[in-house]
Amino acid sequence: MPILLETAQRKLSRRLQTLDSGFNRNVSKRSTARTVDRFALQEGYVSSLWQAWCSFCRELMISSALGATTANGVLVASSHTSRSEMEIAYIAKQLAYGNPIRSIRPLTGSHQEHTWGDLGRLNNVVSGMGCSNASQVLTALSACLRTEDLQLCRNASAHIGKSNLQAVRSARVRYLNTKMQHPSDMMHWIDPNSRHFLWKSWIDEVELSSQIAVQ
Question: What angle do CA 15, 16, 22 make, to 5 degrees?
Answer without folding.
Answer: 95
